[in-house]
Amino acid sequence: MSMREINFDGLVGPTHNYSGLAHGNVASMSHEGLVANPREAALQGLEKMKSLMDSGYAQGVLPPQQRPDLGALRELGFAGSDARVLARAADEAPQLLRAVCSASSMWTANAATVTPSVDAPDGRAHFTPANLQSSFHRYLEPTTTGRVLASIFADEARFAHHPALPATPAFSDEGAANHTRLAGEHGEPGVHLYVYGRQAFGGDGVAPRRYPARQTLEASQAVARQHGLGDAQTVFAQQHPEAIDAGVFHNDVIAVGNGPVLLYHEVAFRDEQGTLDALRERMASPLIPVRVPVEAVSLEDAVVSYLFNSQLLTNPDGTMTLVVPGECQEREAVWRCLQDHLLAGHNPISEVVVKDVKQSMRNGGGPACLRLRVALSEAERAAISGRVLLDDALHGELVAWVERHYRDRLAPADLADPALASETLAALDELTGILRLGSVYPFQLG
User: Fold this and answer.
1) Is residue 81, in this structure, part of any structural domain at all?
2) pTM of the model
3) How far apart are CA 378 and CA 271, in angstroms?
Protein backbone atom coordinates (compact mmCIF):
# COMPACT_ATOMS: atom_id res chain seq x y z
CA MET A 1 0.00 0.00 0.00
CA SER A 2 1.51 3.32 -1.12
CA MET A 3 0.43 5.76 1.59
CA ARG A 4 1.12 9.44 1.01
CA GLU A 5 0.27 12.41 3.18
CA ILE A 6 -1.64 15.27 1.57
CA ASN A 7 -1.78 18.66 3.27
CA PHE A 8 -5.19 20.20 2.61
CA ASP A 9 -4.82 23.94 3.16
CA GLY A 10 -7.77 26.20 3.80
CA LEU A 11 -8.31 29.05 1.37
CA VAL A 12 -8.54 32.31 3.29
CA GLY A 13 -12.05 33.70 2.86
CA PRO A 14 -13.05 37.12 1.46
CA THR A 15 -14.14 38.38 4.90
CA HIS A 16 -10.72 37.87 6.54
CA ASN A 17 -10.56 40.51 9.30
CA TYR A 18 -9.03 41.21 12.68
CA SER A 19 -11.82 41.00 15.23
CA GLY A 20 -9.88 39.48 18.14
CA LEU A 21 -12.50 36.79 18.71
CA ALA A 22 -10.30 34.01 20.10
CA HIS A 23 -9.86 34.36 23.87
CA GLY A 24 -6.54 32.80 24.85
CA ASN A 25 -5.03 33.35 21.40
CA VAL A 26 -2.51 36.10 22.10
CA ALA A 27 -1.93 37.06 18.46
CA SER A 28 -5.63 37.28 17.72
CA MET A 29 -6.35 39.43 20.75
CA SER A 30 -3.37 41.76 20.23
CA HIS A 31 -4.31 42.61 16.63
CA GLU A 32 -8.00 43.28 17.27
CA GLY A 33 -9.36 46.18 15.26
CA LEU A 34 -6.53 46.44 12.73
CA VAL A 35 -7.25 46.74 9.02
CA ALA A 36 -6.83 43.40 7.25
CA ASN A 37 -5.97 42.63 3.64
CA PRO A 38 -8.04 39.61 2.56
CA ARG A 39 -6.50 39.52 -0.91
CA GLU A 40 -2.97 39.44 0.46
CA ALA A 41 -3.95 36.82 3.03
CA ALA A 42 -5.38 34.48 0.40
CA LEU A 43 -2.44 34.99 -1.94
CA GLN A 44 0.05 34.32 0.87
CA GLY A 45 -1.71 31.03 1.58
CA LEU A 46 -1.74 30.08 -2.09
CA GLU A 47 1.94 30.94 -2.44
CA LYS A 48 2.78 28.60 0.45
CA MET A 49 0.73 25.82 -1.15
CA LYS A 50 2.37 26.33 -4.54
CA SER A 51 5.86 26.42 -3.06
CA LEU A 52 5.34 23.13 -1.22
CA MET A 53 3.74 21.55 -4.30
CA ASP A 54 6.74 22.63 -6.38
CA SER A 55 9.01 20.98 -3.80
CA GLY A 56 7.27 17.66 -4.32
CA TYR A 57 4.79 17.59 -1.43
CA ALA A 58 1.19 16.60 -2.15
CA GLN A 59 -1.05 19.62 -1.67
CA GLY A 60 -4.82 19.96 -1.50
CA VAL A 61 -7.23 22.86 -1.11
CA LEU A 62 -10.32 23.28 1.07
CA PRO A 63 -12.80 26.13 0.43
CA PRO A 64 -13.70 28.84 2.95
CA GLN A 65 -17.06 28.99 4.68
CA GLN A 66 -20.02 31.15 3.69
CA ARG A 67 -19.57 34.45 5.48
CA PRO A 68 -21.23 36.54 6.72
CA ASP A 69 -23.43 33.81 8.13
CA LEU A 70 -26.73 35.68 7.86
CA GLY A 71 -28.63 32.53 8.78
CA ALA A 72 -26.97 32.54 12.20
CA LEU A 73 -27.97 36.18 12.73
CA ARG A 74 -31.56 35.42 11.76
CA GLU A 75 -31.63 32.52 14.22
CA LEU A 76 -30.58 35.03 16.87
CA GLY A 77 -33.57 37.28 16.15
CA PHE A 78 -32.36 39.71 13.51
CA ALA A 79 -35.06 39.96 10.83
CA GLY A 80 -35.60 41.72 7.53
CA SER A 81 -33.56 42.05 4.37
CA ASP A 82 -29.90 41.13 4.31
CA ALA A 83 -29.00 44.81 4.52
CA ARG A 84 -31.37 45.31 7.47
CA VAL A 85 -30.00 42.26 9.31
CA LEU A 86 -26.42 43.50 8.88
CA ALA A 87 -27.28 47.04 9.96
CA ARG A 88 -29.12 45.92 13.09
CA ALA A 89 -26.35 43.53 14.08
CA ALA A 90 -23.73 46.25 13.59
CA ASP A 91 -25.73 48.62 15.77
CA GLU A 92 -27.02 46.27 18.46
CA ALA A 93 -24.47 43.44 18.66
CA PRO A 94 -21.25 44.31 16.81
CA GLN A 95 -19.41 41.35 18.34
CA LEU A 96 -21.99 38.99 16.87
CA LEU A 97 -21.51 40.57 13.46
CA ARG A 98 -17.77 40.10 13.76
CA ALA A 99 -18.27 36.47 14.73
CA VAL A 100 -20.50 35.61 11.77
CA CYS A 101 -17.96 37.23 9.42
CA SER A 102 -14.91 35.39 10.75
CA ALA A 103 -12.68 33.70 8.18
CA SER A 104 -11.38 31.28 10.82
CA SER A 105 -12.17 28.22 8.70
CA MET A 106 -8.86 28.93 6.92
CA TRP A 107 -7.23 27.10 9.85
CA THR A 108 -8.17 23.64 8.68
CA ALA A 109 -6.11 21.96 11.38
CA ASN A 110 -9.30 22.55 13.37
CA ALA A 111 -11.62 21.28 10.65
CA ALA A 112 -11.61 17.62 11.65
CA THR A 113 -9.71 14.66 13.05
CA VAL A 114 -8.60 12.09 10.49
CA THR A 115 -7.59 8.44 10.93
CA PRO A 116 -5.91 6.77 7.92
CA SER A 117 -7.31 3.51 6.63
CA VAL A 118 -4.14 1.64 7.64
CA ASP A 119 -5.10 2.22 11.30
CA ALA A 120 -8.86 1.68 11.12
CA PRO A 121 -10.43 -1.77 11.71
CA ASP A 122 -12.68 -1.45 8.66
CA GLY A 123 -9.87 -0.39 6.33
CA ARG A 124 -11.42 3.01 5.55
CA ALA A 125 -10.15 6.52 6.24
CA HIS A 126 -12.27 8.14 8.97
CA PHE A 127 -13.27 11.79 9.37
CA THR A 128 -14.93 13.59 12.30
CA PRO A 129 -15.58 17.34 11.96
CA ALA A 130 -14.59 19.23 15.10
CA ASN A 131 -17.55 20.78 16.95
CA LEU A 132 -15.46 23.84 17.92
CA GLN A 133 -18.02 24.64 20.58
CA SER A 134 -15.59 26.66 22.70
CA SER A 135 -16.15 29.79 20.59
CA PHE A 136 -19.27 30.97 18.78
CA HIS A 137 -17.55 32.04 15.57
CA ARG A 138 -16.04 28.58 15.11
CA TYR A 139 -19.11 26.69 16.29
CA LEU A 140 -20.71 27.90 13.05
CA GLU A 141 -18.30 25.83 10.91
CA PRO A 142 -18.87 22.05 11.43
CA THR A 143 -22.01 21.61 9.31
CA THR A 144 -20.43 23.06 6.18
CA THR A 145 -17.12 21.37 6.98
CA GLY A 146 -18.89 18.02 7.07
CA ARG A 147 -20.56 18.68 3.72
CA VAL A 148 -17.25 19.69 2.12
CA LEU A 149 -15.41 16.62 3.42
CA ALA A 150 -18.26 14.33 2.37
CA SER A 151 -18.19 15.88 -1.11
CA ILE A 152 -14.43 15.39 -1.52
CA PHE A 153 -14.20 11.97 0.14
CA ALA A 154 -17.46 10.60 -1.20
CA ASP A 155 -16.62 6.94 -1.86
CA GLU A 156 -18.31 5.11 1.01
CA ALA A 157 -16.24 2.01 0.36
CA ARG A 158 -13.06 3.94 1.17
CA PHE A 159 -14.12 6.82 3.44
CA ALA A 160 -16.22 6.97 6.63
CA HIS A 161 -17.74 10.20 7.94
CA HIS A 162 -18.87 10.66 11.53
CA PRO A 163 -21.00 13.41 13.05
CA ALA A 164 -19.38 16.13 15.09
CA LEU A 165 -19.52 15.42 18.82
CA PRO A 166 -22.34 16.96 20.88
CA ALA A 167 -21.66 20.69 21.14
CA THR A 168 -21.39 20.80 24.91
CA PRO A 169 -18.46 21.81 27.17
CA ALA A 170 -17.93 18.17 28.17
CA PHE A 171 -17.14 17.18 24.56
CA SER A 172 -15.30 20.27 23.42
CA ASP A 173 -13.38 19.18 20.32
CA GLU A 174 -10.84 21.30 18.41
CA GLY A 175 -9.90 18.74 15.78
CA ALA A 176 -6.46 17.82 14.50
CA ALA A 177 -4.84 20.82 16.21
CA ASN A 178 -4.74 18.54 19.27
CA HIS A 179 -4.02 15.27 17.44
CA THR A 180 -0.76 13.86 16.08
CA ARG A 181 -0.21 10.54 14.34
CA LEU A 182 3.24 9.02 14.81
CA ALA A 183 4.69 6.08 12.84
CA GLY A 184 7.91 5.04 11.18
CA GLU A 185 6.37 5.94 7.82
CA HIS A 186 2.87 6.78 6.60
CA GLY A 187 2.09 3.22 5.52
CA GLU A 188 3.05 1.73 8.88
CA PRO A 189 0.33 1.34 11.53
CA GLY A 190 0.44 4.48 13.62
CA VAL A 191 -0.02 5.63 17.19
CA HIS A 192 -2.39 8.51 17.78
CA LEU A 193 -1.42 11.16 20.33
CA TYR A 194 -4.45 13.07 21.57
CA VAL A 195 -3.68 16.10 23.71
CA TYR A 196 -6.37 17.58 25.96
CA GLY A 197 -6.50 20.58 28.25
CA ARG A 198 -9.00 19.42 30.84
CA GLN A 199 -11.23 16.60 31.98
CA ALA A 200 -14.96 17.23 32.06
CA PHE A 201 -15.71 14.34 34.42
CA GLY A 202 -13.36 13.58 37.29
CA GLY A 203 -9.68 14.39 37.10
CA ASP A 204 -7.54 16.07 39.74
CA GLY A 205 -8.69 19.59 38.95
CA VAL A 206 -5.33 20.84 37.71
CA ALA A 207 -6.19 23.34 34.98
CA PRO A 208 -5.03 26.67 33.58
CA ARG A 209 -6.01 29.78 35.52
CA ARG A 210 -5.75 32.57 32.95
CA TYR A 211 -7.12 31.12 29.72
CA PRO A 212 -9.63 28.33 29.10
CA ALA A 213 -8.61 24.80 28.16
CA ARG A 214 -10.51 24.06 24.96
CA GLN A 215 -10.06 20.33 24.34
CA THR A 216 -11.47 17.77 26.76
CA LEU A 217 -10.20 14.27 27.37
CA GLU A 218 -13.72 13.00 26.87
CA ALA A 219 -13.88 14.51 23.37
CA SER A 220 -10.59 12.95 22.35
CA GLN A 221 -11.67 9.56 23.66
CA ALA A 222 -14.98 9.79 21.80
CA VAL A 223 -13.30 10.56 18.46
CA ALA A 224 -10.93 7.62 18.96
CA ARG A 225 -13.95 5.37 19.61
CA GLN A 226 -15.75 6.66 16.51
CA HIS A 227 -12.72 5.70 14.42
CA GLY A 228 -12.39 2.28 16.01
CA LEU A 229 -8.99 2.89 17.61
CA GLY A 230 -7.96 0.67 20.53
CA ASP A 231 -5.81 1.24 23.59
CA ALA A 232 -2.70 -0.04 21.83
CA GLN A 233 -3.09 2.69 19.18
CA THR A 234 -3.77 5.71 21.37
CA VAL A 235 -2.06 7.93 23.93
CA PHE A 236 -3.98 10.64 25.77
CA ALA A 237 -1.78 13.35 27.27
CA GLN A 238 -2.71 16.48 29.17
CA GLN A 239 -1.39 19.76 27.88
CA HIS A 240 0.64 21.67 30.44
CA PRO A 241 -1.58 24.28 32.15
CA GLU A 242 1.31 26.76 32.17
CA ALA A 243 1.49 26.54 28.41
CA ILE A 244 -2.22 27.27 28.00
CA ASP A 245 -1.90 30.27 30.30
CA ALA A 246 0.99 31.52 28.15
CA GLY A 247 -1.26 31.50 25.06
CA VAL A 248 -0.88 27.91 23.84
CA PHE A 249 -4.55 27.40 23.02
CA HIS A 250 -3.91 24.23 20.96
CA ASN A 251 -1.21 21.57 21.15
CA ASP A 252 -0.01 22.51 17.67
CA VAL A 253 1.25 25.80 19.09
CA ILE A 254 3.73 23.93 21.31
CA ALA A 255 4.41 20.61 19.53
CA VAL A 256 4.45 19.15 16.03
CA GLY A 257 4.99 15.57 14.91
CA ASN A 258 5.39 13.64 11.68
CA GLY A 259 6.56 10.11 10.99
CA PRO A 260 8.57 9.01 14.04
CA VAL A 261 9.58 12.58 15.00
CA LEU A 262 7.94 14.57 17.80
CA LEU A 263 9.26 18.12 18.03
CA TYR A 264 8.03 19.66 21.27
CA HIS A 265 8.73 22.29 23.90
CA GLU A 266 9.76 21.28 27.39
CA VAL A 267 6.49 22.67 28.78
CA ALA A 268 4.22 21.06 26.17
CA PHE A 269 2.90 18.19 28.28
CA ARG A 270 1.97 18.02 31.92
CA ASP A 271 3.63 14.59 32.18
CA GLU A 272 6.44 14.78 29.65
CA GLN A 273 8.17 11.52 30.53
CA GLY A 274 4.93 9.57 30.87
CA THR A 275 3.82 10.76 27.43
CA LEU A 276 7.09 9.73 25.80
CA ASP A 277 7.08 6.35 27.55
CA ALA A 278 3.54 5.61 26.40
CA LEU A 279 4.39 6.48 22.80
CA ARG A 280 7.53 4.33 22.85
CA GLU A 281 5.59 1.40 24.27
CA ARG A 282 3.04 1.50 21.44
CA MET A 283 5.07 2.48 18.37
CA ALA A 284 6.42 -0.20 16.05
CA SER A 285 9.32 2.07 15.05
CA PRO A 286 11.51 3.97 17.52
CA LEU A 287 10.18 7.36 18.57
CA ILE A 288 12.52 10.28 17.79
CA PRO A 289 11.75 13.00 20.34
CA VAL A 290 13.24 16.44 19.65
CA ARG A 291 12.96 18.44 22.85
CA VAL A 292 13.39 22.22 22.98
CA PRO A 293 14.23 23.30 26.54
CA VAL A 294 12.84 26.46 28.05
CA GLU A 295 16.40 27.76 28.38
CA ALA A 296 16.66 27.77 24.59
CA VAL A 297 13.17 29.10 23.76
CA SER A 298 10.90 30.64 26.37
CA LEU A 299 7.17 30.03 26.30
CA GLU A 300 6.70 33.66 25.30
CA ASP A 301 9.05 33.29 22.34
CA ALA A 302 7.38 30.03 21.33
CA VAL A 303 3.96 31.68 21.29
CA VAL A 304 5.00 34.89 19.53
CA SER A 305 7.10 33.15 16.87
CA TYR A 306 4.86 30.08 16.39
CA LEU A 307 8.00 27.96 16.12
CA PHE A 308 6.02 24.80 16.86
CA ASN A 309 3.13 25.76 14.61
CA SER A 310 5.35 24.83 11.70
CA GLN A 311 4.84 22.11 9.11
CA LEU A 312 7.10 19.10 9.53
CA LEU A 313 7.33 17.38 6.16
CA THR A 314 8.95 14.05 5.28
CA ASN A 315 11.27 13.89 2.26
CA PRO A 316 11.81 10.78 0.09
CA ASP A 317 15.26 10.22 1.61
CA GLY A 318 13.88 10.14 5.15
CA THR A 319 15.03 13.62 6.10
CA MET A 320 12.54 16.26 7.14
CA THR A 321 11.85 19.87 6.23
CA LEU A 322 10.45 22.31 8.77
CA VAL A 323 8.32 25.09 7.27
CA VAL A 324 8.30 28.01 9.71
CA PRO A 325 6.60 31.42 9.67
CA GLY A 326 8.72 34.51 9.02
CA GLU A 327 8.24 35.55 12.64
CA CYS A 328 10.77 32.89 13.66
CA GLN A 329 13.50 35.00 12.08
CA GLU A 330 12.45 38.00 14.14
CA ARG A 331 13.15 36.31 17.49
CA GLU A 332 16.87 35.84 18.02
CA ALA A 333 16.52 32.95 20.47
CA VAL A 334 14.13 31.10 18.15
CA TRP A 335 16.30 31.53 15.06
CA ARG A 336 19.38 30.46 17.00
CA CYS A 337 17.52 27.38 18.24
CA LEU A 338 16.58 26.46 14.70
CA GLN A 339 20.17 26.71 13.51
CA ASP A 340 22.10 25.40 16.51
CA HIS A 341 19.67 23.01 18.19
CA LEU A 342 17.50 21.55 15.42
CA LEU A 343 19.57 21.65 12.23
CA ALA A 344 22.78 20.78 14.05
CA GLY A 345 21.19 18.13 16.26
CA HIS A 346 20.94 14.36 15.86
CA ASN A 347 17.49 14.23 14.26
CA PRO A 348 16.04 13.95 10.73
CA ILE A 349 15.30 17.70 10.42
CA SER A 350 17.71 18.80 7.69
CA GLU A 351 16.15 21.97 6.31
CA VAL A 352 14.24 25.02 7.53
CA VAL A 353 12.08 26.89 5.03
CA VAL A 354 10.65 30.31 5.93
CA LYS A 355 7.22 31.35 4.64
CA ASP A 356 5.41 34.67 4.90
CA VAL A 357 1.89 34.06 6.23
CA LYS A 358 1.74 37.30 8.19
CA GLN A 359 -1.94 37.99 7.52
CA SER A 360 -2.81 34.64 9.07
CA MET A 361 -0.26 35.01 11.87
CA ARG A 362 -1.78 38.30 13.02
CA ASN A 363 -5.03 36.45 13.56
CA GLY A 364 -3.32 33.65 15.45
CA GLY A 365 -2.61 30.93 12.88
CA GLY A 366 0.71 29.77 11.46
CA PRO A 367 1.65 27.29 8.72
CA ALA A 368 0.44 24.24 10.68
CA CYS A 369 -2.93 25.86 11.45
CA LEU A 370 -3.56 26.28 7.73
CA ARG A 371 -3.48 22.58 6.86
CA LEU A 372 -5.37 19.36 7.54
CA ARG A 373 -3.17 16.31 7.09
CA VAL A 374 -4.76 13.33 5.31
CA ALA A 375 -2.71 10.17 4.65
CA LEU A 376 -4.17 8.24 1.73
CA SER A 377 -3.31 5.17 -0.29
CA GLU A 378 -2.92 5.39 -4.06
CA ALA A 379 -6.42 3.97 -4.56
CA GLU A 380 -7.88 6.43 -2.05
CA ARG A 381 -6.17 9.34 -3.79
CA ALA A 382 -7.69 8.19 -7.06
CA ALA A 383 -11.12 8.10 -5.39
CA ILE A 384 -11.05 11.77 -4.35
CA SER A 385 -13.94 13.70 -5.88
CA GLY A 386 -13.81 17.25 -7.15
CA ARG A 387 -10.77 19.21 -8.26
CA VAL A 388 -9.02 19.87 -4.98
CA LEU A 389 -5.50 18.52 -5.52
CA LEU A 390 -3.30 21.46 -6.41
CA ASP A 391 -1.49 21.65 -9.72
CA ASP A 392 -0.19 24.59 -11.75
CA ALA A 393 -3.46 25.09 -13.60
CA LEU A 394 -5.61 25.07 -10.46
CA HIS A 395 -3.20 27.37 -8.66
CA GLY A 396 -3.37 29.85 -11.52
CA GLU A 397 -7.17 29.78 -11.55
CA LEU A 398 -7.37 30.29 -7.79
CA VAL A 399 -4.96 33.24 -7.88
CA ALA A 400 -7.04 34.84 -10.64
CA TRP A 401 -10.23 34.12 -8.67
CA VAL A 402 -8.81 35.83 -5.58
CA GLU A 403 -7.67 38.85 -7.57
CA ARG A 404 -11.16 39.18 -9.10
CA HIS A 405 -13.19 38.90 -5.93
CA TYR A 406 -11.17 39.91 -2.86
CA ARG A 407 -10.78 43.33 -1.33
CA ASP A 408 -7.35 44.59 -0.37
CA ARG A 409 -8.61 46.42 2.69
CA LEU A 410 -11.14 45.32 5.29
CA ALA A 411 -11.73 47.00 8.65
CA PRO A 412 -14.22 45.69 11.22
CA ALA A 413 -16.58 48.55 10.33
CA ASP A 414 -16.74 47.26 6.74
CA LEU A 415 -18.38 44.01 7.81
CA ALA A 416 -21.83 45.67 7.80
CA ASP A 417 -21.52 46.54 4.11
CA PRO A 418 -24.25 44.61 2.22
CA ALA A 419 -22.04 44.70 -0.88
CA LEU A 420 -19.44 42.58 0.93
CA ALA A 421 -22.03 39.86 1.54
CA SER A 422 -23.07 39.89 -2.12
CA GLU A 423 -19.46 39.86 -3.29
CA THR A 424 -18.70 36.86 -1.09
CA LEU A 425 -21.66 34.80 -2.32
CA ALA A 426 -20.69 35.45 -5.93
CA ALA A 427 -17.10 34.45 -5.19
CA LEU A 428 -18.05 31.23 -3.41
CA ASP A 429 -20.51 30.21 -6.09
CA GLU A 430 -17.74 30.53 -8.67
CA LEU A 431 -15.28 28.70 -6.41
CA THR A 432 -17.44 25.60 -6.06
CA GLY A 433 -17.45 25.44 -9.85
CA ILE A 434 -13.67 25.73 -10.03
CA LEU A 435 -13.24 23.01 -7.39
CA ARG A 436 -16.14 20.90 -8.75
CA LEU A 437 -17.61 20.40 -5.31
CA GLY A 438 -21.30 20.71 -6.08
CA SER A 439 -23.61 22.53 -3.67
CA VAL A 440 -21.98 22.71 -0.24
CA TYR A 441 -22.99 26.18 1.00
CA PRO A 442 -26.32 27.09 2.64
CA PHE A 443 -27.17 29.65 -0.07
CA GLN A 444 -26.72 26.94 -2.72
CA LEU A 445 -28.94 24.46 -0.91
CA GLY A 446 -31.91 26.79 -0.67
Assistant:
1) no
2) 0.95
3) 38
